[in-house]
Design goal:
Layout lengths: L5 H29 L3 E5 L5 E4 L1 H7 L3 H4 L14 H10 L3 E8 L5 E10 L3 E7 L1 H12 L4 H9 L4 E6 L4 E4 L1 H7 L3 H4 L4 H5 L6 H12 L4 E8 L5 E12 L5 E10 L1 H23 L4 E5 L3 E5 L1 H6 L10 E2 L9 H13 L4 E8 L5 E14 L5 E9 L1 H49 L6 H32 L6 E4 L1 H19 L2 E5 L7 E5 H17 L5 E10 L9 E12 L21 H7 L5 H12 L2 E7 L3 E13 L26 E4 L3 H13 L5 E4 L2 H10 L4 E4 L8 H10 L7 E6 L4 H10 L3 E4 L4 H8 L2 H6 L11 E3 L4
Parallel strand pairs: 18-20, 24-25, 24-26, 26-27, 27-28, 28-29
Antiparallel strand pairs: 1-2, 1-5, 3-4, 4-5, 6-7, 6-10, 8-9, 9-10, 11-12, 11-16, 12-13, 14-15, 15-16, 17-19, 19-23, 20-21, 21-23, 22-23
Helix pairs in contact: 1-11, 14-15, 14-20, 15-19, 16-17, 17-19, 21-22, 22-23
């Protein structure tokens, strides 16, 4: 199983990195949720985009009700909205008290501390209690005991100092947190007891200034316990004046913020890692909601995607995607939100170079929801432009190769047609002359012409067969046959050359051979004839032996008289043999074992290549074993069905046509449409020899239609390639014309391509006879007339039978 591609590995790494960042963010959220202090984030104008649960506990407003609103919207009556907006717009750190109106219909005082990065990050500490304490102190020094009572019951650390900042009193929380008792620290300045090496010097100076200027201070600072443990503390110190306006005390409310600082440090580290990770990724990564509104993008996005870099978020994802891909992207987003696995989609995105680039968009559902309570999607865009261009080039090359292959096949078919047409005149006329009285010299000349024509026809057939096999246009035709009859037929075809060379040809049968077989008789004949002809051609003396065997595989066929198996035959000769280094290319087309073979023996080098392709198509194998100077062994195995059933197909050349009752010769009216004058003469002579004298000959399909409009015709012999109107058009016109008495139509043509034969069946041609045509072939065709007439009509007409003329 192939491993993941580089693009898929990158996406997996990106997903893991994003998951790690999200896990850290969840940990930060957990810490932030535990804080009692309100933590918030808002835009420069004050629009709240993040709050922790402390807001809902203190203010009473839920997160859903709060996010999207402005912080100024919660100011209590009497608070200056303009002052807060001015402070936010100034961008400087903020530390001031504000009063907010809660859902509980009460006004509470908060210490606002905030700093601005891109957005404002800040906290709201509820100091309502502190304010009330200070008010109590300012109202009356005599209420100090009540103040102490209040301070003793708070979890915060409370310290009351004199006007010089020396400790007068501290509550129990102070003692528990610092480890110091009140007795140990009374009369001392808190900093001298609690500060240490990591205490910020600027914070120390701020506190000193607040005491000296009698204004108080607010700081966050590191203090140390008696045991030396450092902790973060938030100090809000306010001065207390007596009735005469003289400074009498300072009161400080201190709150342990160690957990808050850990959370802030964790958040800063998470954000740093998050930015570092996303900055190092070369692919654009983004986050958007279910409306495809982008709320985050990494640096790679701005480098690769043609978006306005000065445009502030949020932006629409579809704005940078080709309009034709919008619907597919929207559908992918819906599927990503519903499923657990990432959704991948090939799209076009706007590129920084001004064009469109092919990108693989990967969308996956992300945890959490945005400020508008919408589902989130994380996405990545992988650049596949180069891969797509390579794929297109490969597809174009494949298409061009297929077109070239088809053009080659058409060229071979056209050349076959052009060669077969004159061959029809040559071989056909020799067939006519054979029936006349000839002297010895004339017979020798006629044999020479006939043999030359057959040799040329064999070359044409090999080239055409190879082209059809290479194009995949050969269809299998399964029939019943006898292996012994097939061998005798093929042996008869090579017997003359065997006798001329003084060779011996022997068939060794096997007792396991079934009486009959079912398979493609024509292809088996072609394989056997090619291998046997090669053995005869390359054997100057000695013998040729054919060994046959049957290997049953025991497979069930559904018929008790049938069995599956392998037909095996081996052709052994004592000929020239083949060098070992040439065996590997023996079955390649247009290749022969030695360049001298073409000079000495002739041939195209296609015979064994055709055998190899035929064996492959039949599910069999062919192999050669040879030794130079010792001869060659060709081994063939073809899967066929063994059967004991009768009704075998007669071997070609062994026909009972002579015993069939053909149509009445004297009464048969024949119309021939043939544009070649030489072929007109050959066909007319052959018909006359067969006793058919009522023959009309025309030169194209239109003339044939004109004749049929004027007289009744029993049989039409149509050439396919003719001027004015071709044979297919003429046949279709005949079948479509109900006013014409429907004749039997034979196609006599040099076109033997699969497409042409299939078209013949569509237009209603009854029999297809390939040129060159001999008298025997024509006689065979006429013998089928009774059967064709019995099955005439579009409803009963079956697939057009095919007869090879000169090879019958």
């Amino acid at each position: 199983m192939p491993g993941p591609t580089n693009g898929e590995l990158q996406i997996q790494v990106h997903q893991r990195l994003l998951e790690e960042v999200l896990n850290k963010q969840r940990e930060f959220v957990t810490h932030m949720n535990l804080l009692e202090e309100v933590v918030f984030r808002c835009k420069p104008g004050g629009e709240l985009t993040l709050i922790n649960p402390a807001w809902a506990r203190i203010m009473g407003w839920s997160e859903h009700e709060t996010l999207g609103k402005n912080l100024c919207d919660f100011l209590a009556a009497g608070e200056s909205r303009d002052c807060l907006i001015e402070a936010l717009e100034a961008g400087q750190p903020i530390a001031q008290d504000i009063r907010l109106f809660t859902r509980f219909q009460e006004s509470r005082t908060f210490r606002l501390r905030a700093q601005r990065d891109t957005d404002w990050y800040g906290s709201l500490q509820d100091v309502t209690e502190l304010s009330r304490v200070i008010e109590a102190l300012e109202a009356s020094q005599a209420r100090a005991e009540k103040l102490s009572l209040v301070a003793s019951r708070t979890d915060n650390l409370v310290i009351i100092t004199d006007a010089l900042g020396r400790i007068d009193w501290a509550n129990a929380s102070f003692e528990q947190t610092t480890g110091y008792t009140l007795a140990e620290v009374r009369g001392k300045i808190p900093g001298t007891v609690l500060q240490g090496p990591d205490t910020d010097h600027e914070a120390i100076q701020t506190m000193a200034n607040g005491i000296q200027q009698q204004t108080g201070f607010t700081v966050e600072v590191i203090n140390y316990t008696k045991q030396g443990r450092a902790y973060w503390i938030s100090i809000d110190c306010s001065p207390v004046f007596d009735e005469q306006g003289e400074l009498s005390n300072f009161i400080a409310i201190e709150r342990d913020i160690s957990e808050k600082k850990k959370s802030e440090q964790f958040l800063e580290e998470s954000e740093r890692q998050h930015r570092q990770i996303l900055s190092s990724v070369s692919e654009p990564i983004f986050r958007c909601n279910d409306q495809l509104t982008i709320s985050f993008m990494n640096e790679a996005w701005t480098k690769a995607i043609a978006a306005d870099r000065n445009q502030t978020l949020p932006i629409k994802l579809l704005d940078v995607i080709h309009q034709d891909d919008h619907q597919e992207v929207s559908e992918s987003a819906r599927r990503a939100l519903k499923g657990k696995e990432p959704v991948r989609q090939e799209i076009r995105m706007a590129s920084v170079d001004g064009g469109w680039r092919r990108m693989e968009l990967v969308l996956a559902k992300a945890p959490g929801r945005d400020v508008e309570d919408r589902s989130n999607i994380t996405g990545a865009a992988i650049d596949i432009e180069e891969h797509w261009q390579v794929t297109q080039s490969i597809m174009l090359a494949k298409q061009q190769a297929e077109e070239l292959s088809q053009a080659r096949t058409r060229f071979v078919a056209n050349m076959s047609h052009e060669i077969r047409t004159p061959l029809n005149a040559i071989i056909g006329m020799t067939s006519v002359l054979e029936t006349t009285t000839l002297n010895e010299q004339q017979q020798l000349c006629l044999d020479t012409i006939r043999n030359g024509g057959k040799t040329l026809l064999s070359v044409v057939n090999d080239i055409l067969d190879f082209a059809k096999l290479d194009q995949g246009e050969v269809e299998l035709d399964v029939t019943k046959f006898s292996w012994s009859d097939l061998f005798e037929e093929v042996a008869d075809l090579v017997a003359a050359e065997v006798d001329d060379k003084g060779l011996s040809l022997t068939l060794h049968g096997s007792d396991k051979m079934p009486p009959a077989m079912r398979g493609d008789l024509h292809r088996l004949r072609q394989i056997l004839l090619n291998t046997l002809s090669n053995a005869v051609k390359f054997t100057a003396r000695g013998s040729i032996e054919v060994w046959t065997d049957w290997l049953a595989d025991g497979a069930e066929t559904g018929n008790s008289s049938d069995s599956q198996g392998l037909l095996c035959f081996t052709v052994t000769d004592t000929g020239t043999g083949i060098a070992e280094d040439r065996l590997a290319t023996l079955f390649n087309p247009f290749t022969q074992a030695d360049g001298s073979i073409t000079r000495n023996f002739g041939g195209t080098g296609l015979g064994l290549a055709i055998c190899k392709q035929l064996c492959n198509q039949l599910g069999g194998v062919i192999e050669a074993i040879s030794e130079l100077g010792r001869g060659t062994v060709m081994k063939v195995q073809i899967p066929v069905t063994g059967t004991t059933a009768s009704a075998l197909a007669p071997a070609q050349g062994k026909t009972d046509a002579d015993t069939q009752n053909g149509p009445s010769v004297a009464e048969t009216r024949i119309l021939v449409a043939e544009d070649s004058l030489a072929n007109q003469l050959v066909i007319e002579a052959m018909l006359n020899q067969l006793g058919y004298t009522n023959v009309t000959i025309v030169s194209d399909g239109q003339q044939a239609l004109n004749v049929m409009g004027a007289q009744v015709v029993d049989l039409v012999l149509l050439d396919i390639h003719m001027p004015v109107m071709d044979g297919f058009t003429a046949a279709r016109s005949i079948r479509d014309n109900s006013d014409i008495a429907q004749p039997v139509i034979f196609a006599l043509t040099a076109d033997v391509t699969t497409d042409a034969i299939n078209t013949a069946n569509d237009v209603g041609i009854d029999l297809w006879v390939s040129k060159p045509i001999t008298g025997a072939a024509l006689k065979e065709a006429f013998a089928k007339l009774p059967e064709i007439k019995a099955n005439s009509g579009a409803a009963t007409r079956s697939k057009t039978p095919f007869l090879k003329g000169a090879q019958l």
